[in-house]
Amino acid sequence: MSQKRSKTKRRDTVKQLADGAQRVLQEPIMKALLNQSTLTKVQLETLLIDLVVEDEHGSHIPYDRKASFRSKRKGRTSGVSRGAFNRTLGQARRNVTRCLYTMLLLAYLGLFDFTLFRPFEEIATRIGDYRKIRDVLAGKTELSDEEIESYSSAERTILSALEELTSSTVLKSELSKRKSEP
Predict the structure, then answer these.
(1) Is residue 124 classed as helix, strand or coil in its secondary structure?
(2) Which whole-number Å values give the CA distances from 66 to 82, 93, 139, 176, in the listed order?
(3) Domains of the chain by residue range
(4) What is d(CA 111, CA 108) in angstroms, rounded to the nearest whole number?
(5) What is the pLDDT of residues 105-153, one digit of tens each?
(6) How far is residue 151's CA from residue 90's CA, in Å, rounded to a whole number?
(7) 24: which residues sit within 8 A by CB, 6+ positions away?
């Protein structure tokens, strides 16, 4: 294979990976999780491009090239500038780091021992199972009605559970919950 065709094939592979990262952002569960996270959609997209695309490609991709894969908005024909990409990436990394430090703080205080975190653990397990189902079904060319219903049912269950997590009583102690009941 000529060097030019090899380079074109690598570029196409990276573009497909970036497009896949952008498609993930359209999934209903992803949207629900993102709405309640500390990341913006642009920050998450940038982080996905930086981490996932490069790891899946198996070699370093320069930031100006990664910036070209960001979603096209407001009349741009391709991505964003390298500077904009790097600024957004820095914001995303800071937000993720702060979230992780918050989790470590809660662990340090021993708050994970309280039952109020169980719903989060349960939904995390359901999401893991859902992703496994999604990955298996993604490899198929045709899906049966049963597979589609199973996938849709799992998605509805998770979305419903996520909706419950946004309740104002989720992060209350059991005593506070009982006090506020009519």
Answers:
(1) helix
(2) 8, 16, 27, 48
(3) 7-110, 114-172
(4) 8
(5) 988 988 877 777 888 889 999 999 998 888 888 888 888 999 889 889 9
(6) 35
(7) 30, 48
